[in-house]
Write a structure and sequence with these properties.
- Keywords: DNA-binding, Transcription, Transcription regulation.
- This is FCD domain-containing protein.
- It holds the Pfam family GntR.
- InterPro entries: GntR_C, TF_FadR/GntR_C, Tscrpt_reg_HTH_GntR, WH-like_DNA-bd_sf, WH_DNA-bd_sf.
- This protein has 225 residues and is mostly helical.
- Helices cover 77% and strands 4% of the residues.
- The chain has a 3-stranded antiparallel sheet with strand order 1-3-2.
- A hairpin with a 3-residue loop joins strand 2 and strand 3.
- Helix 5 packs across helix 7, helix 5 runs antiparallel to helix 8 and helix 10 packs antiparallel against helix 11.
Length: 225
């Protein structure tokens, strides 16, 4: 049992806690697409009850991260190349709308915090800190969506992001991708600070499309090895 699982077991986990733990295992590639999620193993690792573990599976299935089959149980769900493309297209539209609305609606404090997170991400490139970059990037996108004032879109983007968030995660936030993301963020921030909602929307759409393009390149490289 790893440290995170031990802490979870001691705390008497809820189904949401267990779902968060499984999601983290998938993101870190400890659980991979196609791998079965054995109830008894997860109960032992997390200290959760059978009911809570099954409820966690249902939560993750609703997000598209886990597949539940009759007589076979739960397994980590993969995503086809075409499905990933469609997910990114939807995200580009939705997050573009949020960037536009943030430009129009966000208060001064949210704008300052968004700019500060963008600067911290730039520092991650120089210090080669991909895990920290990933955490800050998640905060940056969440803040932008919250500042846009559209909780429905925020929830939709979370659901769209989860099924592909674990794909090649260890190599996604490195090198060229970090530098490209930082440059994208600068363009989005420039548009927001200039009060140009159309430019912010367009820059965010390009940013999400860049993420899909980079992921596609990684997948092709892996399949060709």
């Amino acid at each position: 049992m790893n440290d995170a699982a031990a802490t979870l077991a001691r705390s008497g986990p809820t189904s949401a806690n267990i779902a968060d733990w499984i999601r983290t295992q998938i993101r870190s590639s400890r659980l991979v697409p196609g791998q079965r999620l054995v109830e008894v193993d997860i109960i032992r690792q997390t200290g959760g009850s059978r009911f809570k573990v099954r409820e966690a599976f249902q939560r993750l299935a609703a997000e598209g991260l886990v597949e539940i089959e009759e007589f076979r149980g739960a397994s980590v769900r993969g995503a086809s190349e075409d499905e990933v493309r469609q997910l990114y297209q939807a995200r580009a539209l939705l997050e573009g709308m949020c960037a536009r609305d943030f430009t129009v609606r966000a208060g001064a404090e949210d704008r300052k915090k968004l700019a500060r997170l963008a600067l911290e991400m730039e520092e991650c490139v120089d210090s080669n800190s991909p895990e920290k970059f990933s955490r800050l990037n998640s905060e940056w996108h969440k803040l932008l969506m919250r500042g846009a004032g559209n909780a429905v879109i925020e929830d939709l983007v979370k659901r769209l992001s989860t099924p592909v968030h674990h794909l090649l995660f260890g190599t996604f936030y490195k090198g060229d991708r970090l530098r490209e993301a930082v440059e994208d963020h600068r363009l989005i921030m420039d548009a927001i600070e200039a009060g140009d909602p159309e430019a912010a929307e367009a820059a965010m759409r390009v940013h999400v499309e860049h993420g899909h393009r980079f992921l596609s390149k990684l997948e092709r490289a892996v399949h060709n090895d």
